[in-house]
Amino acid sequence: MAKPWSDDEHAFMSRALAVAERGRGKVSPNPLVGCVLVKDGEVIAEGWHDHLGGLHAEQMAIHDAEKNGFSPNGATAYVTLEPCNHFGRTPPCTEALMWAGIKEVIVAHQDPNPTVRGSGLQVLEEAGIDVRQGLLETEARAQMRPFMHWCEHRRPMVTVKLAVDCNGSVDDRSAHAQRFTSEACLDEVHKLRMECDAVLVGAETVTRDDPSLTVRRIETDRQPLRIVIDPHHRIPKSSVVLTDEHETLHLTTGFRGLVPLLNQLGDQEVQRLLVEGGPTTVHAFLEAKLVDEFFLVQSDVEHAQPVAANISDEVLLRSGLVRGENQQWGEETVQHWRR
Questions:
Q1: Does the annotation count 125 as an active-site position?
Q2: Angle CA(287)–CA(291)–CA(292) in degrees, nearest 5?
Q3: What is the tens place of the pLDDT at every residue in 261-302?
Q4: What sign does the dihedral 116-118-121-123 (CA atoms) show?
Q5: What does pTM read for this prediction?
Q6: Can you spell out the DSSP letters for 218-251?
Q7: Which of 46, 58, 276, 293 is catalytic?
């Protein structure tokens, strides 16, 4: 029978999960990973995967310890994901842990990636390092949800964001195209966009709004791939998404190919797709039961000539989603639904 986790062990792994967040929006297709080194009951170093091609969390933590005058020899490593045992963009983390003299490795979640899947833990055990796993496993899985989804299904997790007025309208035909949510809400949208690998809209959104679909309100080194569904070649050639320097996938095949599209994106290591289109686009994904997460942003504004979104609890439940707790994005209330 495995011994129960102590309060200190919970605290150390919680810290590892917290530092892992520093890589959010910067490391895909790699997962968020955090590592804390503990010696004599004290944290001597922290590390996280900060950017694609950079040090992994374990490697950064070992470097951090040595930089600050601490020897990692004999320390315990708390890692949110099973250490890798293969050469990728960086050398194996298992080797780094062995070379550093780590005596025990506590892992939150096993790596479901076929290139790892248990081999990291096995190699460490064979090297004489004590290994335990499962501490805060649920929390780690939630933090790495897009990566876990991609490993298990080989296609991206689909997140939908749709903003409506107080009566469920997505647009006001009496006015020129304009945003009707608050500035603080827009900040949250850009944060969400930063966390996604690709953003998808339909032709109507591009024709009506001419959006850039880029991350602009948050500092970032990467922009999502933009995807436009345009089966009738409606969008103007002068559209921002077709004329600026960022990458756009302009599709003229319509909505019948959603599953092949998701499979194609999965092959390109797109792990999270944000759908920001209008009702036609959103309903296509809902009816195909391909939505994994839905943010319904509700404003107090009332449109004079409304365009109904036709999004109801019944529609979302029928698509396989369940409602979670409401969130507040600036002045707007957000219903959060998840598969």
A1: no
A2: 150
A3: 999 999 999 999 999 999 999 999 999 999 999 999 999 999
A4: negative
A5: 0.92
A6: S--S--PEEEEE-TT--S-TT-HHHHSSS-EEEE
A7: 58
